[in-house]
From TrEMBL, chain A:
Superkingdom in the source lineage: Eukaryota
Pfam family, one: Clat_adaptor_s
Residue stretches making up the MHD domain: 176-417
Entry protein name: AP-3 complex subunit mu-2
UniProt KW keywords: Cytoplasmic vesicle, Golgi apparatus, Membrane, Protein transport, Transport
UniProtKB/TrEMBL annotation, chain B:
Domain Beta-adaptin appendage C-terminal subdomain, residue spans: 835-947
One GO term of the biological process aspect: intracellular protein transport
Record's subcellular location: Endomembrane system
Protein name: AP complex subunit beta
InterPro entries: AP_beta, AP_complex_bsu_1_2_4, ARM-like, ARM-type_fold, Armadillo, B-adaptin_app_sub_C, Clathrin/coatomer_adapt-like_N, Clathrin_a/b/g-adaptin_app_Ig
Organism field: Prolemur simus
Chief localisation class: membrane
Region (Disordered): 585-625
SUPFAM superfamilies: ARM repeat, Clathrin adaptor appendage domain, Subdomain of clathrin and coatomer appendage domain
Pfam family, one: Alpha_adaptinC2
Amino acid sequence: MIHSLFLINSSGDIFLEKHWKSVVSRSVCDYFFEAQERATEAENVPPVIPTPHHYLLSVYRHKIFFVAVIQTEVPPLFVIEFLHRVVDTFQDYFGVCSEPVIKDNVVVVYEVLEEMLDNGFPLATESNILKELIKPPTILRTVVNTITGSTNVGDQLPTGQLSVVPWRRTGVKYTNNEAYFDVIEEIDAIIDKSGSTITAEIQGVIDACVKLTGMPDLTLSFMNPRLLDDVSFHPCVRFKRWESERTLSFIPADGSFRLLSYHVSAQNLVAIPVYVKHNISFRDSSSLGRFEITVGPKQTMGKTIEGVMVTSQMPKGVLNMSLTPSQGTHTFDPVTKMLSWDVGKINPQKLPSLKGTMSLQAGASKPDENPTINLQFKIQQLAISGLKVNRLDMYGEKYKPFKGIKYMTKAGKFQVRT
Amino acid sequence: MTDSKYFTTTKKGEIFELKAELNSDKKEKKKEAVKKVIASMTVGKDVSALFPDVVNCMQTDNLELKKLVYLYLMNYAKSQPDMAIMAVNTFVKDCEDPNPLIRALAVRTMGCIRVDKITEYLCEPLRKCLKDEDPYVRKTAAVCVAKLHDINAQLVEDQGFLDTLKDLISDSNPMVVANAVAALSEIAESHPSSNLLDLNPQSINKLLTALNECTEWGQIFILDCLANYTPKDDREAQSICERVTPRLSHANSAVVLSAVKVLMKFMEMLSKDLDYYGTLLKKLAPPLVTLLSAEPELQYVALRNINLIVQKRPEILKHEMKVFFVKYNDPIYVKLEKLDIMIRLASQANIAQVLAELKEYATEVDVDFVRKAVRAIGRCAIKVEQSAERCVSTLLDLIQTKVNYVVQEAIVVIKDIFRKYPNKYESVIATLCENLDSLDEPEARAAMIWIVGEYAERIDNADELLESFLEGFHDESTQVQLQLLTAIVKLFLKKPTETQELVQQVLSLATQDSDNPDLRDRGYIYWRLLSTDPVAAKEVVLAEKPLISEETDLIEPTLLDELICYIGTLASVYHKPPSAFVEGGRGVVHKSLPPRTASSESTESPETAPAGAPPGEQPDVIPAQGDLLGDLLNLDLGPPVSGPPLATTSVQMGAVDLLGGGLDSLVCPGPLWIGGPNFVAPPAAAVPASLGAPIGSGLSDLFDLTSGVGTLSGSYVAPKAVWLPAMKAKGLEISGTFTRQVGSISMDLQLTNKALQVMTDFAIQFNRNSFGLAPAAPLQVHAPLSPNQTVEISLPLNTVGSVMKMEPLNNLQVAVKNNIDVFYFSTLYPLHILFVEDGKMDRQMFLATWKDIPNENEAQFQIRDCPLNAEAVSSKLQSSNIFTIAKRNVEGQDMLYQSLKLTNGIWVLAELRIQPGNPSFTVRLSLKCRAPEVSQHVYQAYETILKN
């Protein structure tokens, strides 16, 4: 199982180590540094690295490498999922997950890690259980602790640990009982030069924020559940009910959690809400290139597209760009060759465009590759797949909760080839 | 207010200062001090000097302080074992605490202190905690057993913790069950022989129940454990699959992949006609696709596994090509994997899309990726014949881009396309020749030279082109030099008049000026060929080449089947069986897919053929030519029936063998009768000298043989059966049998090379098995095995190898290596090769033992159609070391009392009842043995011996 964990910052310093079995010397990380050097970019470091006696599995999040050391045959996904859980827990505890924050809270971090694994076996990874065992630091609590001499460590066995609903503690009380659900869909798409769709799929999630007293039992039903044929559930969802009735029946976790994630890949169901017209041309003879892009709405079901952001990695040969946007601001970094254009809202009457010239290295031949345009956008109050919640019912408790559902569509990995 | 203040003291007296604070009377100050110590520890500073002071803080009601001290102890106890003892009392006391959290914490921490002396004190508290009323404590204790086992395995066994752990599998709490499974799996990994996870339908049922209720991590442990189970029939397999499928919708990708493993493995047992089979196939696709929308690291592992899955069952993802299309900001390791899978999924239906994508990729920035994309286009052409033309034109387009590495890569793959579709696309050669100058990589240069040589007759200036390469001959890499040599010889054979000078030049360069033996030898061969017989040279050099196929990229089927059993593990990421890379060779058990049971189809699983039936029941193999030859030679030599049958090779080299210390091969002669009467006559009572003779005393045996007087004590030898068919081992066919002669066991192998290349570097290895069978000498194949050649080898075995109980008991898993690859097969050996020569029990002893063995250990069998009388039976069995101790006649029945002993010292007692008048010639056999599991196999041995 998981032997040790090293946290390494982007400049290659090991700033935290934790061992759950015998101590593994930090020199094992040298193999990691070698791989890091070879990969040139942090994102490209391979997630599994063999060394003579160990295997190093790593994830790169928030500019920190989380490197787990294993010695025997362990499912790598198990380790990587666990590392993600560590990142999420840190974020949950400290608001952000960064090197200074981890260093500031090093003892809490250490205590939390100790609770998460025992002998390399996961022990408590649900954040509500962890928070009962080790209270997250707050300014107020630190002050109180200093005065009263009480501690950050809970001395009672967390109630969720062994119950059949480990994701919920007993005796939860709220004065305002509310349950909010966010249906968020991300479109991943590749659009080719001519504007036709090569692939498009929707990654959807329903995130819940439930603050309800007692042990409520909720049922969520959809207008069109047939859309959901590829789903992953939070453990609280009763799978049998879903199989037979296509409704979500569950005792919710307390607080924020991801109820469901789904995947819609059937091509006809994925509407593409924006289009990009582009004209990027290099000429062999001239050291100037033409650049022009226009963004416009396509299938938006009458909603506004906001938060539009265009980024593109320009070829190495491009020295500089002189461009004028019809709206928004743009920047070009001559070192990384990254062009970004913060467009904002799209007004269908007056389409935003960015025009101008690129100056190329004099005498060099025209670049081999065409830049790919990356698009980000947001559409409020729309789930692009058409998924709609029908109703939400609560059983098991007497009060009347406040319920709310929000929809949002975002661009995921949305790429336009030129 | 933050912990970073703990790092600020860097003065000289830091340790001293901390020491003072730790011994302070104020609780708060103490706690702060311990925090500082922990903070230093986390960044790797050595604070072990503070050990006694920190341990003094342990006796406290403050749980946080206690936990902090425990953290410290775990880290440093090993370096201060004597000091660590001081902590024991507190631990023992805490294990009695009314608060389950503290009890669990104590037992958990104690297990992490890797000091021998402490483990002694741990046993009692651990025993209590394993039976604690609180499930939280029990689940913690279960893990603690695994920790303790890691420190002191013997102790855990002696204390009976393993049994307690096994009992926890039936615990009422699913979390306890999951942890018990996890602990047992970990222990089993270092103890492959222990058979800890004895899975049966009842325990499987319990696991499946717990699966629904435990945490995600527990589900992974349970699923991985389930995957090791072999259901008894397809119905059981289906019911397990049905209960596992809901896990495919879990949010944790590791759970999903472990569930996929179970399903992929058990699917093997389901008939393809079943409706459920189709349903299951459909259910597998969406979760695999979903894994690809996860974080890149997860995607990578998922893709490596999908790569295996699409090779095993391409139908699952055949419609999902698009999800493998590459996004330009995917990490490079994801891009390369996606590309690989795209090619595997490429078919006539989707090839247009795939090609368009590949062309797009070939203009990306990342050089490695672009190269692989270009190569992929070539692989598509080879895989999908209809697309070849389009692929070639795409490659030509790419060559027009003049991007250096794209051109080179394209030329390398076009060479492969020529090999696959000869005489079809030669029109493009002109375009290729235009780019000759830009080639600077050896592989591309070699490919181009090959093309020029192969199609020299169509290229007008082929001689000029090749000559231009020849100028810098010595600076080229070996690959290019060899290719150039061959190409020029080809050219010469095609256009002899104009190129005489050129060929002489290259031959002299290769043979006289080069230090490279390969090059020199190839040069000489060509030279001699050309000078002795140009016609023959033409036939050899310009011979028609076998077509290449896309299968070269596929994982070899037996390995693939093994890897399918390892989905989700590191083995699946590396596409190697764990035995190939897991540290220390901790006796990894080879896994195999379960055989299809109820299906009427022919078996697909690799191991069913050898494992399905004992070798004795296999249909006789038609003797190969070589065998017949051997037989004839045998007759000519005229040895006695019981004499050593000579293998073809030993006939050829007979003289050398006798002189050159080849005695061993005569002591363990390889039998050669195929399908004929295989029985070896029993030894004459008067010549027991050879009984139990040590292996080394070859001379006396030799004397016996040559004089033709004595008869060897030799057991029944089954005819050779094919163990490893050529199609599963890249052309190597292995058949064989087991023999026992004069106290030594040997495995007689017949290796046939059915491939087109010479095989060398043979080696053999056995997996651990029930009786510790192991090769006593390395596998000696004296000469390289050329195509269509067969060699007979007798491999002496001993029984001092490591032991692990196998299922079935007489299963033997073998790995054979040659210069091409490593192959695995398994076979069943007849148990009588293990019957030792001194298996005759004293009469009194026999009576006592017979009474002593409880009646439930007695097993009854019937052997039908055995028309032998008691005399014949007795003598027949004796030759296989089954000794008759007494004989009685009761009511017209002959009763034989017999004993035999196995190599590992297990005695088997037998009572044989023969009814001479019985029309069906039935012999009744009762076996008594302290290890009743061998009875079935002993019975089989009886039957084989008596019926042959």
